[in-house]
Structures are given as C-alpha cells and as structure tokens.
Write a structure and sequence with these properties.
The chain has 145 residues and is mainly beta. The protein has one helix and seven strands, in the order αβββββββ. Strand 1 and strand 2 form a beta hairpin. The relative contact order is 0.25.
Length: 145
C-alpha cells in the first residue's frame, strides 16, 4: 500500500514539475505602431479623383508597407445622409518601401464617374499584415459636365 502511495506521489510530482505553466511569453510580442494618415484631401482632375495625404507623426515609418484606399459613392441628386451606415469598397493600394515611407505627401488617383459624391478613406498597412488607424473621410463631388 505504501508502495502504491509512493508511486502515485512520484507521478504527481513529475507531472507538477513538467506542467509548471512556463511555456512561452505570457503576452504576444508587440509590433511597432503603424503611423496613421493626416490631412486626406481629394480633388477632381479630368476623369479621375486625385487624393493627397501625409503621414501622421506617431509610429515608426519602417512599419509601413503601403496604403489601402477605400471609397463609397452616392448619387449627387440625393442629399448626403451623414448618419447613415456606409459600405466602403477598396479601390486601390499604394505600396511603398524604404525612404518613400517617410516622404510625403502621398498621391493616388482612381477613375470616377460624373454625377456622384465620393467618400474616401485611406488606411496604412504594415509588413506583418496589421493595419494602422483610418484617415479622416474626404468628400469629393464629381458633377456632370
């Protein structure tokens, strides 16, 4: 009987030592924050909408791999519904690298259709696949000519 008790205590001690709970870092490694976008502006040039923006000061520029550009369009004949939910769609990506990440302003253009109001946002993304904060929303009205 004492042999069984000693055996069970030995097995319990081995399990306790092996299962100390120290298997890896308690918190996942943190990546440098991705700088946001400041002062997004849009203008109509020909048949395109030209966007310009700068990188905001917070974060490391090395963390940026590029920018995703999102747009929502609505008919100019309708009044804008400021509180309505919107489904933004990605209209393009602006990849950047190296020193280009710290330079600015950034420029991107995309084809647009006359007679629509465009709401546009830009969001930076990093090398690890993470995203930075969304930019301000720029509104561009493209009247029919």
């Amino acid at each position: 009987m004492y042999q069984r008790l000693a055996l069970l205590l030995s097995i319990g001690l081995v399990i306790c030592v092996m299962a100390c709970g120290l298997k890896g870092p308690p918190v996942p490694p943190q990546h440098a924050p991705i700088p946001g976008v400041s002062d997004l502006k849009g203008t109509v040039e020909g048949l395109t909408i030209l966007l310009t923006w700068s990188r905001s000061g917070a974060g490391e520029t090395q963390a940026i791999s590029g920018y995703d550009i999102y747009s929502y369009r609505s008919d100019l004949a309708q009044s804008p519904c400021l509180g309505c939910p919107r489904q933004f769609a990605r209209v393009g990506t602006l990849p950047i690298s190296g020193q280009q990440a710290s330079e600015g302003p950034f420029r991107f253009s995309f084809l647009a259709t006359a007679g629509f109001r465009y709401l546009i946002k830009v969001r930076p993304y990093g090398k690890t696949g993470s995203h930075g904060p969304e930019s301000n929303t720029a509104m561009v009205e493209f009247p029919k000519r």
